[in-house]
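debug: dumping io for the single-chain case to check the tokenizer round-trip. Nothing else runs in this session.
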Amino acid sequence: MGILNVTPDSFSDGSQFARPGSTSFQVDIDCVLNSAETMVADGAQILDVGGESTRPGAEAVSTEQELDRVIPVITALRSNFDVCLSVDTSVATVMQEAVAAGADLINDIRALTLEGALEAAAASKAGICLMHMQGQPRTMQENITYDDVVEEVYTFLSQRVESCRGAGIADTRLLIDPGFGFGKAVEHNYQLLRNLSRLNDLGVPILVGLSRKSMLGAVTDKPVGDRMAASVAAATLALQGGARIVRSHDVAATVDAIRVHCAYNEA
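debug: decoded output
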């Protein structure tokens, strides 16, 4: 899964898709298409489009802002690429309009807990990724507490899977994401990575987002832009734990890791 953050303030790639000369953030569609073309050529099978930064401390955006950012991008991607398109959103209206524009997957960091989200996702027939997060993006890295992070993440995702089943969503439409970096201290992230296989017991595929995150910088002492090697190492460990989809900024290097992992398993 290649990452296309059409925001001015995402932690790693914020503003890279800004239209030159604009006084406020405007998405440069041609720039997005160029990046998407490279990602697809490098092996991305999914492109994930997000219009709201969810880094710690990020400013909230209105539904209209989010729609203005993501809908033209999804429309353009759908016209140019035959790959799975994902919308990274928690808002029911954005889910509905993104699917109408061509999105195949709803990737929700709030696991369909906002008003109307579960109903919108159920009615859409799109795939759904349910993620665990303690707290909310603006404050999630404050006052982090777990008795057992692995079991608490497992319990939350199990409950959300059951809620989806209750809304008539088949397991074949579901993915789960432990939410690395979302309301977790460094040690919690590594405990989750080490015990990722526990989530296989939920019976739906695991998606992981580890790319360039602070948990990698904490142990390598590398800035965001120099974390590709650490990201690939973490992705490989996640694959060994049962991850089926890897969300990445560095598609080519990650695809190489996936190919090596698959060859190793098939030897």
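debug: round-trip ok. Residues 2-266 form a domain with the TIM Barrel fold (CATH 3.20.20.20).
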